[in-house]
Design a protein that fits this description.
Number of strands: 12
Strand content: over 45%
Shape: elongated
Number of helices: 2
Helix content: under 10%
Radius of gyration: 20 Å
Structural class: mainly beta
Strand order of the largest sheet: 1-2-5-4-3-6
Distance between the termini: 47 Å
Order of helices and strands: EEEEEHEEEEEEEH
């Protein structure tokens, strides 16, 4: 069985649908239609990722109605609220300045004005925009991760090139 570190969060089961064991699934992805032909998914049940085979998917706007193989209505109700995961290998590769947040952890960050400033430790994604967290010798530097500040992604050399707002890096290092 895979663990969550080897997977990405796809969405969650919101509620049951009808009386045949179907479930309404909310997909937390940019393009839900990309997942309209899934054959299986991992459902987190009591802390473990359990594989389920999908027999039917009916896409709606930002959610879908799914039916799992062999799942009856009473069993389906027990999955409401569970999170859904897919292996990282199921993600399509990104190019250019587009990247998955997990992909750049450990990358060296180079600022246009300040030069090399540290290593990406994580990306906070719970506010209005993602925040890049950079370790600079034990100090955390936080830079908004918006297109205007991102100059380039060098996957081969594991480097992010940014142009932080004037004074932002100095603020953290003072």
């Amino acid at each position: 069985m895979p663990n969550k570190a080897d997977c990405f969060f796809l969405g969650y089961i919101g509620r049951t649908f009808g009386y045949r064991g179907e479930l309404v699934v909310t997909l937390d992805v940019d393009d839900p239609t990309r997942y309209a032909d899934l054959k299986s998914v991992f459902v987190e049940v009591k802390g473990s990722l359990v594989p389920y085979f999908i027999t039917e998917i009916r896409m709606r706007d930002r959610d879908a109605v799914w039916r799992f193989e062999g799942l009856e209505a009473d069993e389906a109700a027990r999955l409401v609220g569970c999170e859904l995961y897919l292996p990282l290998s199921a993600l399509p590769p990104l190019t250019g300045n587009r990247f998955y947040f997990h992909e750049v952890t450990g990358f060296t960050v180079e600022d246009k004005a300040a030069g090399e400033i540290g290593t990406v430790t994580r990306i906070y994604d719970n506010g209005p925009q993602p925040i890049l967290s950079i370790d600079h010798g034990g100090k955390e530097i936080m830079v908004p991760l918006i297109d205007a500040f991102l100059l380039g992604v060098d996957r081969e050399n594991r480097r992010l090139k940014i142009a932080a707002p004037e004074g932002l890096i100095d603020f953290y290092l003072a």
